[in-house]
Amino acid sequence: MRSELDRPVQRELTRLRVNGEDLELYLPVHKTLLEVLREDLKLTGTKHGCELGECGTCTVLVDGEPQLSCLLLPLQAEGRELTTVEGLAEGAAPHPLQVAFAELGAAQCGYCTPGILLAAKALLVRDPRPSRDGIKEALAGNLCRCTGYVKIIEAVELAAERMS
Amino acid sequence: MLRLPRLRYLRPATAGEAAASLSKLGSRAMFVAGGTDLFPNLKRRQFEPDTLVQVPPLKGVRRVDGHFEIGATVTLAEAAADPGLRAALPGFAEAAGLVSSPPLRNAGTVGGNLCVDTRCNYYNMTYEWRKSIGFCLKKDGDICLVAPSSPRCWAVSSSDTAPAAMVLGASVVLVGPDGERELPVAELYRDDGIEYLAKQPHEVVTAIRLPAPEGLLTAYVKLRRRGSIDFPLAGAAVALTLDGPIVTGCRIALAAVASHPLEVPEAGAFLAGKRLTDETISAAAELAAKPARPLDNADLTHFWRKKMVRVIVERAIRQAATPSTT
Fold first, then answer.
1. Can you give the pTM of this predicted structure?
2. Would you call A29 and B229 a contact, using CB atoms and an 8 Å cutoff?
3. Is A9-87 a domain of CATH 3.40.720.10?
4. Domain boundary assignment for chain A
């Protein structure tokens, strides 16, 4: 297994569009989008969790749909619109979801929050007044070990109410 | 941190070119589509290719001459949400919609789920974990840690869509360097945890064809610890035809109780010609559960999983029949 370190690193010019900004990056092809966002673009709002697709904390939006950046190569994301938690606010104004999460204490340790905000944003675009079951289903891929989810669901409901 | 190994990444334009690349590179290369199964496995060094060959986009859910043709890179989320599939083959659409969690269904593909690697508690672990306990037969070792006296690997088939496709008599389109062939899904698998696919490694799945005759009733019921994400601990797919109250045809297949999706023809044959009653459904479920052989290599106890096979088969039969029996 260690012989893999003798292999050359294939780097490719990769065109990414992140939070509305077009970027050209010369990246090792085996570096995940999560690693590129955090290490190369310093967008550390996207969190490192299990790295195996189980926890959802590295969720980003790809063409508006939640996907896990730990299981996505930048080359696979070329030509797609990527949104991280840093792209959620409009200038200095936080997104209504962010406001509701802060007001209702939906973030405790906060580690799952960026992924949950993005999954919730995708839901509200698709369904502006989701049912409680709809919210649970949309957030099913995002683990939270603090809140027990109740405050998170209430915050999504509050944001939905304010946005519509 | 779990990083991917250094890799070359090839993006061929067509399935034929992808197959040709893999044919040339042999076991050094693997196909990747959504990556939701492969990337975790690569991070844990369960495979050690030095090249990944991307399956080119093969999109679209089309209805042609009484069957559905789904492109291999249609995501599980797209398949689960497709209105035509949901109406005609709810069993398959539900199976796709029950795979893993929403963000993974947005990346994972129908072709990928059919080819998903077999799983085992001793195998789906990091390199360091596997090294510490002693490597297993499936990767780097020479004994099966679940059944040490067995000469074979007992890793578990974990596809939800495979049994749902099997009960429809579905087939996959395979493209190799020399052309295309169609293979029934029932013949895509082998009873072995390591060499679990019967296709050639360089053959790429480009589409799945699902027959959808009028009046076919289908359902899929999945057992797992957390309804939001887990791989199946067992799954039951049913396809049923009724003439009034009488069953005229029934196929039942199980997920995650063997190294391959397991069709149980005895149970389907038992129901043919009978009315669906509590007794016949229960007897069919009993027959279906008989060949299920869960081992102590997945979540929860295998005794409970074995007992639950009967329960989920019953539920699946009832769910399939609901529009006509109530």
1. 0.96
2. no
3. no
4. 9-87, 96-163
